[in-house]
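Newbie here. two chains, one complex. Structure please?
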Amino acid sequence: MSVAASPVQQAVLWLNDPLNWTNPGGILQRLGEHLEISAAAVALGCLVAWPLGLWLGHTGRGGGLVVLVSNATLAIPTLALLTILPLTFLGFGRTPVVVALAVFAVPPLLANAYTGVRQADVEALDAARGMGLSGGQVLRRVELPLAVPYLAAGFRTAAVQVIATTALASFVNGGGLGEIIRTGFGLSIAAGGGQILAGGVLVAGLALLAEVVLGGVERLVTPRPLRRDRQRSGRPRPADATGRA
Amino acid sequence: MSFRLSYLADPGNPWFSWQYVRDNSDTILAALGEHASLTGRAVLFAVLIALPLSVVAYWFRPLAGPILGVTGVIYTIPSLALFAFIAPYLGTGAATVLVGLVLYALLLIVRNVVAGLNQVPPEVREAAEGMGYGRWGRLFRIDLPLAVPGIMTGLRLATVSTVALVTVGVLVGHGGLGQLIFAGFQNNLYKAEIMTGTVLCVALAVLLDLLLVLVGRLVTPWSARGVR
């Protein structure tokens, strides 16, 4: 590889080498790891945050807790959790990485589940109760369907954020596309610049792709009248309030 | 290998150690200093860029969408990838980290400042125009002062998330307290070093957040309930 070439040319060269895709530790293997870790983390986050958020929203309590959780996780560096969790009872391997990433998926999932239930039309709730539905039935048949657009918004935010932070798993040798960038830095900037840039493009491309695809899903599950309403009122969604690492 | 395992099992690897803090106070203070200085500079530059951008988005409505869209896309790019884009050009110096942090903080500040400016009641705007305020006069005397709560919210969010993000600078060797966390991980998982870095990092975020709340109260004496 000619060192004189610009980083962009080097990156194109690196991406055009089929061995860089198929080798052990190549793009395809790293992409697979990245998607596995992200999927597991988002699933774990949903498992914890959705029931809790729906229940808190249903009972109308715990609004302060939701805010506290999102503020607290904003201040904790991802790198710290990734390095600390393997030292606890979780042990080494993929588990602590997934748990650490799931922690950062919880705030948007929780906040949106909570808000989704809270924003349910009061008249619809009154009507449901008047029809004799129990608390659990109201949650399942009225509040939950009305909260679906919010759940989808939270899912999109959480998934994109987890895909982004999974890149940091490479700091603790956790695999994923971040490893490509780290390996590039392991060489020097002059020799590895192309690989660094190529890794960056892959990670950013995956995050943006997830954003676009899940944004489409979010639109699909949002009833048409609500779409226009939300665009016009332009109120910020709780999903927007959380940070990213 | 057996040495490492015995080291792990060794009770001499506590979560916190005064001994470590005393022996390495120079390193710790240097890391804390770098962390604080990177955060301060990043937020300062971000504000200097974001405020004019927000005013442009406020004055020229058709530009609001593109401005928020572009900063939003930058915000979506993972931090590691953003640093990877910058490093081949700016090298492995603090400049790479700084530019990345500024780009990240932009969206948080722009969105909140625009929201703050849009919250200025139309009656107030009309009254100001009726009193003969020009565009600039209205901006500095009416719009911006009334948008202070939004500006402070954006500043707080940007500051707290910047403090956490600085640690990713480890990638290019300028991660502030992240250097301690990462070094502890590589140094046979030295818990005391990792925890000292983490605790100081969170403490710095909380401290700066409280400081900004205080500043917010001082610059908006009319809102007795403070900045929310």
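Moderator note: Residues 229-245 of chain A have pLDDT under 50 and may be disordered. The CA atoms of residues 139 and 145 of chain A lie 9 Å apart. Thread marked as resolved.
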